[in-house]
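Shape matters. Shown next:

___
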Amino acid sequence: MKSIRIGAGLGFYGDNWKPVVASIERGGVQFIASDHLAELTLAILQKDRQRDPTLGYARDVVPMLLRLWPLMRERGVRFVCNAGGLNPMGAAQAVLAAFTAKGWAARMAVVSGDDVLPRLLDDSAPSGELAHLFTGDPVAGVRERLVFGNAYLGAAPIVQALDAGADIVITGRVADAALFLGPLVHSLGWTLGGATSSQDLNRLAQGLTVGHLLECSGQGSGGNFGSQGAWKDIPDLAHIGYPIAEVWEDGTALITKAPGTGGRINFDTVRQQLLYEVHNPLAYHSPDVVLDMGGITLHDEGHDRVRVTGARGTAPGEQLKVVAGYRDGFKAEVTWGFSWPDAWDKAQAAVDTIRCQLADKHIPHDELFVEHPGLNSAHGPLAPLPDPATLNGMNEIWTRLVLRTQSKTAADGFGRLFPWIGLSGPAYTCGFTGLHNTSELLGIWPTLIPRAMVEPSVRVELLESAK
């Protein structure tokens, strides 16, 4: 029975691509699928695009492919990524220019059509359409401030690009696991888009499971392992190997990694990734199939090999998820330290002084957020603070203050409230950081859109670098 091997690429914009080298050189892979878009990455890319309209893509794709392409070309490995972000064609053109400068020839495919901002901006749309996914608020409340809106596409255009012979496929916003499902459908002859039989849907469900297990790079092979105490047994994280899946025509999958790499593939690391960011394990929705994880079996074969079977699938719904972003004011932040004795009381007195100045000067703001790194910034209210006597006996207390405001002028001036307190406030101030640190905030608007409004506009364009 035919099988293919597919390796994990990045898990987010800025991730490490060195482990991908090991997967290509020693992992026997035919495909690398690289996920550059975490949930909020489009907001980062929008800020890039505001500064330079030719940007809006994950710029790490260029140096990554300059490093990987010679290895891929030699072994016939193909590459799929969503690094196109808000500007897939811009990403492809940047890669093409870099390849042309090297004299390298490659066939690239660009997948676009996920941009649904025009629909979100259309004030003639029905009032209940595109409501906030969690609050139900109408989109009209943010419409004038919207700056991007992208639907999560499925695997179909990736399959089309690979069927057309693309060596490298660059997409915009697609569902993370679709990056992996596309090569599986292309290579193993699975039915996609018209799948109705339980066999077809279960194969797609297995493929979606594989994609979910590999989409987070090193987290699928022991990185970020949260089991109390057991994380210490994960070997050689400095040289971690990213997960690789060998998948057969019936959907059976073996999760492993390249030999000689760090990290660990076992029952515990795989099951942790399986449930990562899953709200309902019995109905994990994607554009291509709805995955029921209830029947999945993980068989630990030892030696960094876990066999995955039993995923069940049902047909996907008629809507696609959308992530949109809107301008939501500005923030400024300052971090400030106080030393023993009475460190806690000094910090509280300083915060009260800042609150007083905000009121006295009538500085408009929505919130002054206060936290204490090292005490409660990781777990917030879930981390009860010690009693004040203990806190006052600590060597130092650090306090982070974040002002959220709709006024850029107010944000720009926030840092000026602090320096004088160095000599005129509580004693033993350890210093300030971030006194001139203003940034624009982008709010996120999750919603649903009928797929019939999106998929007819999806395009796959083939490009080729000059030899």
